[in-house]
Amino acid sequence: MDKVTGPKLPQIDGFERYSVQVKAVMSANNGDLLSQAAADGLGIVMQPTFIAHSYVRAGQLVPILADTRWPSTPAWAVYLPTRHLSYRVREFIDFLVDYFADTPYWDEDCER
């Protein structure tokens, strides 16, 4: 983070990626601390919904820029290619697909 201009927030517009320079008043590597600081009125915060959802549900934080498309971090199930995938591995992969298929409960409060 540049102390004069602050961090760059990544954004996506269609297929184009770009960054927006912002001035940061506070910086931390703890999402709970940053969410609490924003709830206490110290500014806005860019947080994953699984961290901020309780503050949104309580009305302490309000989602902004909801129409902005932010970069995502996908999760992958990686396994060695074999002739016969074991039953346990196949079941675990199927479980992960089913578990993460629906909207998580923490996103339900943030999708208004």
User: Radius of gyration, Cα only, in angstroms?
Assistant: 18 Å
Mean pLDDT: 80
Q: Indicate the structural class.
A: alpha+beta
N to C succession of SSEs: EEHHHH
Described by strand count, sense and barrel closure, the largest sheet is: 2 strands, antiparallel
Terminal Cα span: 32 Å
* SS elements, strand count: 2
Low-confidence runs (pLDDT<50, min 5 residues)? none
Shape: elongated
Percentage of residues in helical conformation? 25-40%
Strand order of the largest sheet: 1-2
Strand content: 5-15%
> How many separate structural domains?
1
If helices are DSSP runs of H or I spanning 4 or more residues, what is the number of helices? 4
Provide key terms for this protein.
two-stranded antiparallel ribbon; 4 helices; elongated
Walkthrough of the structure:
The chain is of the alpha+beta class. It has one domain (8-108). It has helices at residues 31-39, 49-57, 87-99, 105-108, and strands spanning 8-13, 16-21. It has a two-stranded antiparallel ribbon. A hairpin with a 2-residue loop joins β1 (8-13) and β2 (16-21). The longest helix has 13 residues, at 87-99. The radius of gyration is 18 Å and the shape is elongated. The mean pLDDT is 80.
